[in-house]
Amino acid sequence: MNIEQYGFRRTDLPQDARGIPARITAVRRGCFEIVCDRGAGLARLAAGARREDGETGPTVGDFVLLDWREDGESRILETLPRRTWFSRRDPSSSGHGEQAVAANFDYVFILQPLGSGFHPRGLERYLSLAWQSGAVPALLLTKADAVEDFTDQLRAAEKLAAGTGVFAVSARTGYGLDQLADYLKPGRTVVFLGPSGAGKSTLVNALAGGEVMRTSGIREKDGRGRHTTTHRQLLLLENGVLAIDTPGMRELGMWEAEEGISRGFPDVEEHLGHCRFSDCSHQGEPGCAVAEAIRRGELSPERWESYRKLREESRLSGSKADFLREKQRRQKELSKTLRQWKKADYRHEPCMESFTCKVCGALVTPEDAGSRHRNHCPRCLSSVHVDNRPGDRASLCGGTMDPIGVWVRKDGEWALIHRCRACGALSSNRIAADDNPALLMSIAVKPLAEPPFPLWQAAPKKP
């Protein structure tokens, strides 16, 4: 078996690669079917397996590096960078997560059945996400043999998919399949997308010249398709073409597809930026170019509403993605802090660390503190907000703590009052033996040196 038959390019192999290259052909509940030069088998993610930041995965079509094991499950060590990929909002995450559908493909075949199953709004979604993937989309109107006259639907699809190849085909009779020859080259990967009943598996079988995917008919009562494909799978066809078949999607939520939407709606965006007001919301303001285009019949209200809705979905998913990335970053910081806490708990044992002051740049060492703890700079008396409770090192703030006052403890010892610049938190820290005495005195007498009232003001007279 040769991994290059599965679209791998040796030039994409990192110089410091560890493991052998493989491609994922199917995903089954955390277990991955893979192919490589050694053969085909199963693999699981190794602990700490690397992948590109911000990417989900691995998924079908991904190239990975793995620790090959002949007699058992191999271990995936790293997911290699993707050339293209297609994702949607994960329906199992209440809209808060991203689900990878397929990766590293050259073309996206968007299938839509002719007849009662033809839905222009659904096509707009698929086209936007296909353009966003970075691959070249093509629109295939299937089941041409079941419709007497599909001229109107073909023209409507060509209008929606400007700049995209649109083909009416029939996998059952072979009608129109010869038009796809330019896409079906050995070593090229094609992903098949579309709703249930669009004929994805049937078309894959027709292109393969035999039954490689199980198929089923449509329901008679509503003409809608059944879910035949239950998982995404990559197949190597006899002609050398790589096909990724995907299950029909009941929900196709947008996930950060701004560029894809722009590519899919050029007829809408040509009117943007020409309104009388630069901040026009296109909700009835005077001089709105979008409203004028709709009035003149240059832009349909349905087309504009679809564009607006997809933009809003993409914007919201982007906000959720930013929120999740920030949450993940904070969780990593907290985990790091907790690991450090386990190594040394400064609530119960001395803190003898040296550090460089973030404010004045002085090198601070523990030897001259005169106590078991060193918690601020002796030169400028500044500190850093690292504790929620003294010594726990559990704060994620990290802001600079400024000395703002001095108070006297019960035993007569002085303590500094610090306030965080970032969050405003207050803390009390015992002074150290080598603290700057002049600065301590200036902080202590500041309320007396700058009273909030004039000292010469006469005392109020007694009644």
Structural summary, described in words:
Zn(2+) binds at residues 275, 280, 282, 288. Its EC number is 3.6.1.-. GTP binds at residues 142-145, 194-202. The protein has 463 residues and is α/β, with parallel strands linked by helices. It has four domains: 3-82, OB fold (Dihydrolipoamide Acetyltransferase, E2P); 86-245, 3-Layer(aba) Sandwich (Rossmann fold); 261-324, Probable gtpase engc, domain 3 (Ribonucleotide Reductase Protein R1, domain 1); 355-449, no CATH class. It has eight helices and 19 strands. The strands form five sheets. Strands 10-9-8-11-13-12 form a six-stranded mixed beta sheet, sandwiched between helices. A five-stranded mixed β-barrel has the order 1-2-3-5-4. Strands 16-17-18-19 form a four-stranded antiparallel beta sheet, with helices on one face. A hairpin with a 2-residue loop joins strand 1 (20-28) and strand 2. The longest helix has 43 residues, at 301-343. It is elongated and about 105 Å long. The N and C termini lie far apart (107 Å). The model is unreliable at 218-227 and 249-255 (pLDDT under 50).
